[in-house]
């Protein structure tokens, strides 16, 4: 395993993720142990877990920070979920791209309580690593094009650093170009 580059780590120091299971939600730890995927973890102030505050405090570039959002699609009585990965500088296109891919009449971000209960992860730390096996993981092309990324660890008190190849190597993961759109610079 190669270390994440300093320009992605900012002021943080990271250790191999499985060396610090105390910094991982149980589903994340189990997934990393089962797959052996390349991942590093670092502790952070849980009050700074939200991306904008985290990046400002620790010097991690927004362009190297990827957010996982749980989306829910409904058609009739059928509910489907997916994890969408987007750069912090982008927003997932839930109403068009996600809705069509979920074959749903209606799609939205999953309610916080539902996302937490179903994923086994804390809100603000949700990650595709360890997501439920029946959820597809859609990785926006802008995320897939990065070398290294900072993502959630399943808890608010740490972050994972992973190569984009790690995300694309997860079971059920797929690159989806156009999954997200860049936010106007004033929205950052």
From TrEMBL:
Stored Pfam families: tRNA_edit
Domain of life: Bacteria
Domain YbaK/aminoacyl-tRNA synthetase-associated: start-end pairs: 46-167
Gene Ontology molecular function: any one: aminoacyl-tRNA deacylase activity
PANTHER family in alphabetical order: CYTOPLASMIC PROTEIN
Record protein name field: YbaK/aminoacyl-tRNA synthetase-associated domain-containing protein
Species of the source: Propioniciclava coleopterorum
